[in-house]
Specification:
heterodimer; A: alpha/beta; six-stranded mixed beta sheet; five-stranded parallel beta sheet; 8 helices; 23 strands; B: alpha/beta; three-stranded parallel beta sheet; 3 strands; 45% helix
Chain lengths: 428, 78
């Protein structure tokens, strides 16, 4: 399977008569893009705003972040099941507006959404302080139930991500990256002496606005399956989550999964990358058992020597994490887990809610309870009063002058468990 | 909290929660497995009557558990 990512570099974003990229600047036709956003009668109003790196801007509450992508050739369309039809993706060529992002924002959908600061101390914690953001701020129609509102905002994000890329499809790529790899049988035969590694991408699948979608299918109704890493880059997995913002995998994270990137770069040299196993975090104990058995068994049938396991969220998913590692280890498959920790504001509490003696390799993505001081910003996109309802925030978090004192978990992507952040932890 | 109530106040505690491994890890002594994380002590998918039956059964099981002497961490599955 061969996929070319044609990356068009975006270093600034401005309004213009025509949506296009010119010499690193993304011009956006505001009216046209708004009309794409409003192709949903569940929105009463919508606004588009820009938030650029270094600006004194706070975006709150953020639901999802989407990197603009569209297919230039090859079967299907990005975000299959939402934007395109229903066909497997991951082949051909895909245009990427590298350095641009669509950020979806509106009155709070659920209590675990977060914020992005484009400058100041919080900017260091989120990758989205470095992207040129086109921010969609919506207001749902009166009486719209939360689940429909979540779906509307989620789908609008994909629609706008595709729209921006589609309008720039004639742009010349600044960089072309090729991702080419066969299936696990073929690649294992090519490199018989290299260790074979699979990747479990654990995803929040708990209902009540905590969901992940695979080819449009609500993953909480699935059992774990196998996909080619290229499929992830074309948006096969997307976020429908309002889970704790510090460690949610936004759609942008799925598209730019650093674990996929790293395993790919080592494929054929240090290891054989067998593929991605999108897996669940069930709300029932029996579901957690079923899922982890499926995962371990899939890894065994693929002939895996080792597995990288990433978590999404924290708390009860820590049990899925432990079960996934323990069951693989018992089968003789080595594991490494990547997770953040909820170790209290002083960092002294137990990091994970669960534990398993079989876990011998753990990469920490940081402590979600660490407190951070956020200064006043000149401009607020969205609704800053919503901090009192966000995870990591409280009623007293927002001070009269507009500054905030919050836990790290209020910042989108700050302790991302795919490892897409600048912080980590080490033993002392 | 479960351990502290038992240790400090000497009052036996039964914990009803969904994820049994976490209860084992934190050291609960009397464990009654709950239904699911969003609804540990009921099952709305079974309708109002079914939900009520599940609730009653769990409560009665918990009351039995609290009266049962235990020597080690014990899971009450029935």
């Amino acid at each position: 399977m061969r996929l070319e990512l044609h990356k068009v570099s975006v270093r600034n974003v401005l309004w213009g008569d025509e949506t296009k990229v010119e010499r690193g600047t993304l011009f956006v036709n505001r009216e046209e893009m708004l009309s794409v956003a409003m192709k949903d009668n569940r929105f009463a109003r919508a606004e588009l705003e820009f938030a650029r790196p270094g600006e004194s801007v706070r975006i709150i509450p953020v639901k999802d972040v989407i990197e603009p992508r569209c297919k230039l050739s090859g079967p299907g369309e990005v975000f299959p099941g939402f934007v395109g039809g229903m066909q497997t993706v991951g082949e051909g060529t895909t245009l990427v507006l590298d350095g641009a992002a669509v950020v979806t924002c509106g009155p709070i959908v659920a209590f675990q959404e977060g914020l992005i600061d484009m400058s100041g101390p919080a900017a260091d914690y989120s990758p989205f302080s470095q992207t040129n953001n086109v921010v969609l701020v919506v207001e749902p129609v009166e009486g719209l139930d939360q689940h429909s509102y979540e779906a509307a905002l989620r789908e609008a994000g994909f629609r706008l991500g595709w729209y921006l890329a589609d309008k720039c499809r004639d742009s010349k790529a600044d960089e072309v990256k090729v991702y080419e790899m066969g299936g696990p049988v073929e690649e294992s035969a090519k490199y018989p002496h290299l260790p074979k590694i699979a990747y479990f991408c654990m995803s929040i699948t708990q209902g009540l606005l905590h969901d992940t979608f695979l080819y449009g299918a609500d993953m909480k109704h699935l059992v774990p399956t196998l996909i080619h890493p290229n499929e992830k880059m074309d948006g096969a997995m997307v976020s429908g989550n309002c889970v704790s913002s510090c460690d949610k995998n936004t759609t942008w994270h799925h598209l730019n999964d650093p674990i996929v990137e790293e395993l790919y770069s080592r494929h054929g040299k240090e290891l054989v990358f067998l593929g991605v196993i999108p897996t669940l975090e069930d709300t029932r104990l029996a579901g957690k058992e079923r899922t982890s058995w499926f995962n371990a068994n899939l890894a065994r049938m693929l002939g895996a020597d080792g597995v990288v396991v990433s978590e999404e969220g924290y708390g009860n998913p820590d049990t899925d994490l432990c079960m996934n590692a323990a069951k693989c280890e018992k089968l003789g498959i080595r594991t490494v887990i990547i997770s953040d920790e909820a170790a209290g504001t002083d960092g002294k509490s137990q990091g994970l809610a669960d534990a398993a003696p079989e876990i011998t390799a753990f990469v920490s993505a940081g402590n979600v309870n660490e407190m951070v001081e956020l200064p006043v910003m000149d401009r607020i996109l969205g609704y800053d009063s919503s901090i009192s309802n966000l995870s990591g925030g409280a009623e007293e978090s927002l001070r009269k002058d507009g500054s905030m004192f919050v836990e790290l978990q209020a910042i989108i992507g700050s302790t991302n468990e795919l490892g897409f952040s600048r912080i980590g932890a080490r033993w002392i | 909290m479960v351990r502290e109530i038992e240790n400090s106040a000497g009052i036996p505690v039964v914990q009803i929660a969904t994820i049994v491994p976490i209860m084992l890890t934190v050291g609960a002594n009397r464990i009654v497995p709950g239904v699911a994380i969003p609804h540990p002590v009921g099952d709305p998918s079974r309708g109002a009557e079914g939900d009520r039956a599940v609730r009653r059964e769990l409560l009665e099981r918990a009351l039995r558990a609290i009266q049962t002497p235990v020597e080690e961490q014990t899971i009450f599955t029935s």
